[in-house]
Amino acid sequence: MLQLGDIVEALGGSLHGSPKTPIEKLAPLETAGPRDLSFLSHPKYQSQLSQSQAACVIVTAQFKELALSRGACIVTDDPYHYFAKLTQFWKKQTSPALKAKIHPSAVVDAEAIVADSAVIGPLCVVERGAKVGAHSHLKSRVTLGEDCEIGARCIVHSGVVIGADGFGFALHQGEWEKIEQLGAVKIGNDVEIGANTCIDRGALQDTIIEDGVKLDNLIQIGHNVHIGQHTAMAGCVGIAGSARIGAHCTVGGGAIILGHLTLVDGVHVSAASVVTRSIATPGHYTGFFPIDDNSSWEKNAASLKQLHKLRDRLKSMEAQLLQPPLQESQS
């Protein structure tokens, strides 16, 4: 348990209330109790603020008076960012610190390099020539393939496979000939990779994940993909081989980016979209057919299949309308 004064001393902000107020846990506005700390990150939830039973709420100056009408508050410019830092502080204060170690059940090749401050969890495999940077944490059952590298302060969640072969085959006389994947995977600093995500090694050049990238669970990153700094991808995204994703991009859950495409910095792709062309201008992009009840969807899908015929008919009608009228012949 912490006191409000401890939190503000560590993280800043302006406290309006007793610094000795005890805080037992962090909680959402709607469920917070009288010994909980919560936050308001968006004006649309202000009705929950007035009704919340939280001991203290983190708010912007705009909502200071409303927050004070129901109890203590911490005023800060960005409550959501403050909350993120608070969760880190809370975990450090209330959870036992991880000790740098290699779990006895992990398999680490003698030619691998693991920083003294790294943590290698149960049943992990770190293969020959692989590197794990300072203060990085591989949780259970992570596989780091030959010559693949993870930078400093990375978190790799359970079941992740880094450095499996990319999907490379040459079709010859009806049979598939394997193309050996001779590259590796290079992961920068401060990267977090969600459970059961797979990042394939490159065919000739390396697959690159730059600093600060955040990948959710069950993501597939194909061979030779390059992802720029501080890009974030939600669950079940699929990136096909040799795609290049810029910095500070976001990709919504279940979206697909086809191979050999380039997305510039600052591109934001909606969930379930399929990106079929390169994107050269920053912005928000969406590419999917909206959900509908099945019978309506089938009718609309059938209509879409006729669009090319309707287009040709429309062009024909426009051509007829634009033709000059025939002059009547004089008798």
User: Which range best describes the helical content: under 10%, 10-25%, 25-40%, 40-55%, 55-70% or over 70%?
Assistant: 10-25%
**Which residues sit in consecutive blocks of at least 5 with pLDDT less than 50?**
none
Shape: flat
What order do the strands of the largest sheet run in, or round the barrel if closed?
8-11-14-17-22-25-28-31-34-36
Number of structurally distinct domains: 2
* The level-1 CATH class of the largest domain: Mainly Beta
> Which topology of the largest domain does CATH recognise?
UDP N-Acetylglucosamine Acyltransferase, domain 1
Distance between the termini: 106 Å
Fourth-level CATH superfamily of the largest domain:
Hexapeptide repeat proteins
Strand content: 25-35%
Topology:
Elements: E1 2-3, H1 4-11, E2 14-16, E3 22-23, E4 25-26, E5 36-39, H2 46-51, E6 56-59, H3 64-68, E7 72-75, H4 79-94, E8 101-102, E9 107-108, E10 113-114, E11 119-120, E12 125-126, E13 131-132, E14 137-138, E15 143-144, E16 149-150, E17 155-156, E18 161-164, E19 169-172, E20 175-178, E21 185-187, E22 192-193, E23 198-200, E24 207-209, E25 214-215, E26 220-221, E27 226-227, E28 232-233, E29 238-239, E30 244-245, E31 250-251, E32 256-257, E33 262-263, E34 267-269, E35 274-275, E36 283-285, H5 294-305, H6 307-322
Parallel strand pairs: 4-5, 5-6, 6-7, 8-11, 9-12, 10-13, 11-14, 12-15, 13-16, 14-17, 15-18, 16-21, 17-22, 18-23, 21-24, 22-25, 23-26, 24-27, 25-28, 26-29, 27-30, 28-31, 29-32, 30-33, 31-34, 32-35, 34-36
Antiparallel strand pairs: 1-3, 2-7, 19-20
